[in-house]
Design brief:
Length: 188
């Protein structure tokens, strides 16, 4: 069994009952990750696993600092003893360093978790930021607008998303370019 199936069942256990909307979102993000298999090769399994687990830090039982990438990654590292690469992807998903800075958790995040390979980091950001909170595919600009309207202009999350927008758009652009190049190469 690959990591992806294991990750799906772990995420289901953690999210499905307490946070059904996050669970729906995670299913959509994982489906997006599966669609990137042609450009990721053997690393697709790792990306899909990280997609299932990227938001587990929102689960009430896992909340510690209140910064979900760090809480989720620490849980995976300390309790689950998960693969280092998987922990790193969850810790840094969707340009998390910017929100970490705003929460005074930048040093904690970056000293505990290194960055993963940029292509994988970008791929997870793409999957998260082109999937709605309900798990439906949507354009990155709609996704950014949705976050701003959900949290409101003064919220720390909105300010962090503003700081992360260049990083998010660059990641989405890089993945779309890789997908187009792949389509041109295969003729599909
Ligand atoms: Fe997240």
């Amino acid at each position: 069994m690959g990591q992806a199936e294991w990750a799906r069942e772990l995420a289901r256990t953690i999210l499905e009952e307490p946070l059904p909307r996050r669970w729906a979102h995670s299913q959509g993000v994982a489906a997006k990750a599966e669609s990137l298999a042609p450009i990721l090769g053997e690393e697709a399994d790792l990306l899909i696993a990280s997609a299932w687990l990227h938001d587990i830090g929102y689960a009430p039982d896992l909340i510690d600092t209140g910064f979900h990438p760090l809480d989720g990654a620490r849980y995976l590292r300390d309790v689950i003893k998960a693969d280092d690469r998987l922990c790193r992807l969850v810790a840094h998903h969707t340009c998390a360093v910017n929100e970490a800075r705003n929460r005074d958790l930048f040093d904690a995040l970056t000293s505990e978790f290194d960055q993963e390979r940029p292509e994988l980091v970008e791929a997870l950001t793409y999957c998260d930021m082109t999937t709605s909170p309900d798990g439906v595919p949507l354009d990155v600009t709609e996704r950014l607008a949705e976050i701003h309207s959900r949290y409101g202009p003064e919220h720390l999350v909105s300010r962090s998303i503003t700081a992360s927008t260049p990083c998010i758009l660059a990641a989405v652009g890089a993945v779309e370019t890789a997908l187009r190049a792949r389509q041109n190469y295969t003729g599909r």
